[in-house]
Amino acid sequence: MKNIIFFTNALVIIFALYTNPVRADFTAKVQRVVDGDTVYVVDKSGNEFKVRLAGIDAPEKNQSYGLASGHHLSKAIKNRWVFLESKPRKEKLYSVDRYN
After folding, report:
1. Residue 71's domain spans which residues?
2. Is residue 17 predicted with pLDDT exceeding 90?
3. Residue 17 lies in a domain
């Protein structure tokens, strides 16, 4: 009986470890642009999220061309509906990058 309980628990742990990470793909409206790679969006329920654009390394507002990059991104997507697709993480779930 102990072997069956041990085997069952081992299977549960193995399946829990090999599940796909939770992804949050949804549509939202861009409310404001912080800089060339960070925006705030609001989903259809009214929840606001800070979003960093994956694969983009734009200058910060206080760096050369920082204001221009934010202005161009704002012209392109501000007040528009966008589809957000989360990037699966390979590292720990609660890790943060240098931008938080």
Report:
1. 24-84
2. no
3. no
- What residues are paired with 26 via a beta bridge? 84
CATH value at residue 78: 2.40.50.90
Q: Which of 48, 27, 37 is nearest to 73 (CA)?
A: 37
3-state SS of the chain: helix, strand, coil percent to 5?
A: 30, 25, 45
Other CB atoms closer than 10 Å to residue 36's CB: what's the count? 24
Q: Any alpha helices (H) in 1-100, and if so which ranges?
A: 2-17, 66-77
Structure confidence by residue, pLDDT tens digits, 58-72: 888 888 998 999 999
Does residue 31 lie in a domain region? yes
* C-alpha dist (Å) from residue 48 to 39, 78, 84: 10, 14, 13
Structure tokens at 29: 């409206």
pTM over 0.85, yes/no = no
Nearest to 26 by CA among 93, 83, 91, 98: 83
CA 64 – CA 73 distance, rounded (Å): 16
